[in-house]
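Page 37, continued from 36.
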C-alpha cells in the first residue's frame, strides 16, 4: 500500500513539474523581433551605421517615428566615447537613424557603473502635420474687428443704482507693522 501511494505522489509531482516547465517556457519565450522590427518598417541596421545623437528632448528632424529606448551600462574606466559607440550600436540594432534625449553626462546608479540612455527614432519622409485648429473659432471678419470689445459679464451701472463691490485696502508698505496679539 505504501508503494502505490509513493508511486502516485512521485507521478503527480513529475507531471506537475513537467507542466510547470512547459508553461514557463512558453510564457517566457523570448521574442525574435525587437519593437522596431515588429512592423518591418525599419529593419535592423549594422552596428557601425551612421546615427545622429541629439542631447535635446526633441530631435533635429521635422518628422520621425519613435522606435524605442536604447540603454547601455559601462564601467567607469571605459572611455565615454566607447560607451557612446555602444549606445549608437544599440540604436542601429533597433533600426534607428537618430538618438535623442541623450544626457550629456551619464547616469551613475552605482560607484563603478555609468549608464547612457536615449530614445531611438527614424526620420520619416514627408512634411510635418499641421496642428489641428479645429477646436478654435474662425478668425474675426473685418466688420467684427472694427467693433468695440464687449465684456461677457455686464458691469453694474453706478448711475442706475448698481454698485461695484468694495475691495479691501492694501496695507501701506511704509507703515509700522501692526502689533501682534499674544
Amino acid at each position: 500500500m505504501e508503494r502505490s501511494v509513493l508511486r502516485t505522489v512521485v507521478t503527480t509531482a513529475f507531471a506537475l513539474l513537467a507542466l510547470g516547465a512547459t508553461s514557463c517556457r512558453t510564457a517566457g519565450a523570448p521574442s525574435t523581433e525587437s519593437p522596431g522590427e515588429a512592423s518591418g518598417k525599419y529593419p535592423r541596421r549594422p552596428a557601425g551605421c551612421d546615427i545622429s545623437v541629439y542631447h535635446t528632448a526633441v530631435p533635429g528632424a521635422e518628422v520621425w517615428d519613435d522606435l524605442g529606448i536604447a540603454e547601455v551600462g559601462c564601467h567607469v574606466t571605459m572611455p565615454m566615447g566607447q560607451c557612446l559607440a555602444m549606445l549608437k550600436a544599440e540604436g542601429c540594432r533597433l533600426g534607428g537613424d537618430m538618438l535623442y534625449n541623450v544626457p550629456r553626462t551619464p547616469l551613475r546608479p552605482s560607484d563603478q557603473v555609468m549608464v547612457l540612455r536615449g530614445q531611438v527614432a527614424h526620420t520619416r519622409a514627408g512634411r510635418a502635420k499641421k496642428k489641428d485648429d479645429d477646436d478654435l473659432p474662425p478668425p474675426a471678419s473685418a466688420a467684427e474687428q472694427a467693433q468695440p470689445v464687449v465684456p461677457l459679464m455686464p458691469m453694474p451701472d453706478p448711475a442706475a443704482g448698481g454698485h461695484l463691490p468694495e475691495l479691501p485696502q492694501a496695507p501701506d508698505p511704509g507703515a509700522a507693522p501692526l502689533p501682534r496679539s499674544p
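The domain at 52-123 is CATH 3.30.110.70 (Translation Initiation Factor IF3). Flag for discussion at group meeting. The chain is about 25% helix and 20% strand.
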